[in-house]
Write a sequence for this structure.
């Protein structure tokens, strides 16, 4: 939200951040799951800050729409339909991106799914799908991109986790466990790759209004009750993530690594 309380973009297309710590001019940013929701909002913020963009999404149609929306504000843009669970495809896409841009400075691991059931009924198929999409793919995408960062002795990796990795939610056996694991993977990669100038941090959103949470908000009684429990008295919107993502992607956070920052309007403070 802006100073006047209205929602909207970061309003930096006029170049007001150029030359500042938050300037991404000349940086190349890869955002997975970029066709909608949090990924699209993050990509938009990076474009307005001057970054060149590489957009990944499994859904080619949505990816094309997102790319068309961002094209006017992005310096250069490459949209690649990629299934992050396919190691061959993701490595091929990274190779193509390197050939096109010569570098990748920023990686946002945002692609993910939610699925689950109570522990007695949670199937192996569901468990494997969540682990593969939300954790395994993050490692292998990072592993494919990190050598390009190591070569330049500079890079930013941002893993989108969830407060489900900190708090216990019903039916969260797979998703919550994976997000907790992602937070620890963030710490491990920060330690291993820090000597090469690669910073690895995470963002843990609370409940945000996105396509993934549509079913939650369909329960209006739950939504009213939950909103009343949030200290800021509102749910997150994708635009609320833009400032934090920009901070972690920019020089402003160059001495920060291994941290996962919760952004949930204070909801996780209430027991």
């Amino acid at each position: 939200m802006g100073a006047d309380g209205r929602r909207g973009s970061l309003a930096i297309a006029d170049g007001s951040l150029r030359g500042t710590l938050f300037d991404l001019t000349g940086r190349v940013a890869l955002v997975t799951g970029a066709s909608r929701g949090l990924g699209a909002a993050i990509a938009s913020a990076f474009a307005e800050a001057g970054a060149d963009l590489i957009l990944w999404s499994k859904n080619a149609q949505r990816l094309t729409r997102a790319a068309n929306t961002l094209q006017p504000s992005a310096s250069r843009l490459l949209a690649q339909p990629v299934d992050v669970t396919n190691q061959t495809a993701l490595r091929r896409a990274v190779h193509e991106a390197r050939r096109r841009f010569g570098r990748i400075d920023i990686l946002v691991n945002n692609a993910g799914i939610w699925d689950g059931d109570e522990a007695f009924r949670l199937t192996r198929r569901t468990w494997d799908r969540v682990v593969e999409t939300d954790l395994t793919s993050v490692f292998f995408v990072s592993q494919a991109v990190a050598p390009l960062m190591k070569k330049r002795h500079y890079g930013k990796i941002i893993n989108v986790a969830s407060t489900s990795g900190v708090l216990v939610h019903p039916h969260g056996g797979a998703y919550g466990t994976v997000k907790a694991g992602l937070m620890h993977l963030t710490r491990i990669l920060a330690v291993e790759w820090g000597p090469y100038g690669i910073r690895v941090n995470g963002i843990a959103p609370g409940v945000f209004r996105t396509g993934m949470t549509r079913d939650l908000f369909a329960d209006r009684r739950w939504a009213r009750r939950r909103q009343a429990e949030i200290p800021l008295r509102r749910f997150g919107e994708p635009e609320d993530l833009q400032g934090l993502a920009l901070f972690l992607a920019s020089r402003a956070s160059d001495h920060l690594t291994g941290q996962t920052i919760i952004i949930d309007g204070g909801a996780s403070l209430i027991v």
The CA atoms of residues 55 and 79 lie 5 Å apart.
